[in-house]
Specification:
Length: 421
Amino acid sequence: MKKLELLEALYTISRSMHTLNIEELLHLILEGVTKTLGFERARLYLYDESQHLLELKMAVGMKKEEIENIAIPIYQEDSVIAQSLLQKKPIVVKDAENDPRVHQGLTQLFRLKSFAAIPLIGHNKVKGVITADYLYSQEEVTEEKVEGLMMFAHEAGLAIDNAEMYQKLQNTSFRLANQVQVTSQDLNNTMVRLEKSKKLAVLGQLAAGVAHEIRNPLTSIKILIHSLLSEKKEEQRQEDAQVITHEIIRLEKIVNDFLEFGRLRSPKLEGIKIRTILDHISHLLHQEFKERKIDFEIQLPDKDIWLVADKEQICQILINLIKNAMEAIEANGEICVSVTRPADLIEIRIKDNGPGIANEIKDQLFDPFTTSKEGGVGLGLSIVHRMMDSFDGSIQLEETRSKGACFLMTFHSYEAEEVEV
Ligand SMILES: Nc1ncnc2c1ncn2[C@@H]1O[C@H](COP(=O)(O)OP(=O)(O)O)[C@@H](O)[C@H]1O
Ligand SMILES: [Mg+2]
């Protein structure tokens, strides 16, 4: 083969050696040595650094069983192959049987005569050794052949290095991907457990609260029924029966509040005119205001103000807050609901001139079961808080200089045409 032809052939093979699969690459290298460079047999040894061994990985022109389990210790002195690796130099053998540098066991096994051992050098490390020879034609390995082999081995060494690096990278990325998967699964499990224990904790808290609330009226009902059965006087019996009815109504309220807290549905958002809601509430509570001698005042700007919220829930929030104010005032007082529109917000204030919020419950005012009332359940404000959250509004206690309590509800504001249907 002429030099130019050889170079061309080498160029073609080295381009095909860009595969990153090691097995495929080794095969391509050996095919190059035999088909392109014309050798009859070629063997490829890979260097196992940790074991200090050169392992025979693949061969062409030979039977599979001939090359099984062959490894050469790199410090073996009578091995041209090991020497070629250590010296990073090609070694040509003319007559293996009579050459002291050659291991005779291998000479006989492979029926070696004339052969060449060429190191495969990667970017900065020796990767292995190729040996090539002629068995049938008994041709001698010439300088020219070795030159071609060396050029080829140079490309092959770099290709092996690339493939190994790729494999390492791939292994690392597999490991990382695995780790990410395991970690995210762990995280998921933890979150599910956490969520569950959070729910259980809230449930436990609710159950304890409800049990506590229910126990008192139940105990008094039990005592009253006992006295009802033993009491002779009709008047006293009437009185007991009335107290029992009262306690049962209280029980009903506790159960209703509890159910409402647990069953909070997702809001049906719609455009609501605030004036309509407040007029409705004023009408609804009219009788109670009258009985308690409470002045109920509504202060609204002239221009209609619209909210985006759940109509029923907004009513319930306002009723909860106004009822709390009434219960705080007991009788003779004032409650004022005022609406303002600073910037792009809507603010609704529910203000009363009662005794104000007791200091000891201020910090947990919106927590379930916070109450200062004899028969109170303490779920009202926590329901209000959750509902306001669900339509992206907020509620807080506003400090005022005047006597009483003031709750401030804040919403995003919308133009009438944005919400009117
Ligand atoms: N306007 C108010 N004035 C004074 N205290 C109030 C007012 N609103 C609420 N509170 C206090 O907040 C507590 C919690 O209210 P709430 O959650 O509605 O439960 P409940 O009315 O069942 O006690 C009340 O017990 C009361 O002490
Ligand atoms: Mg209440």
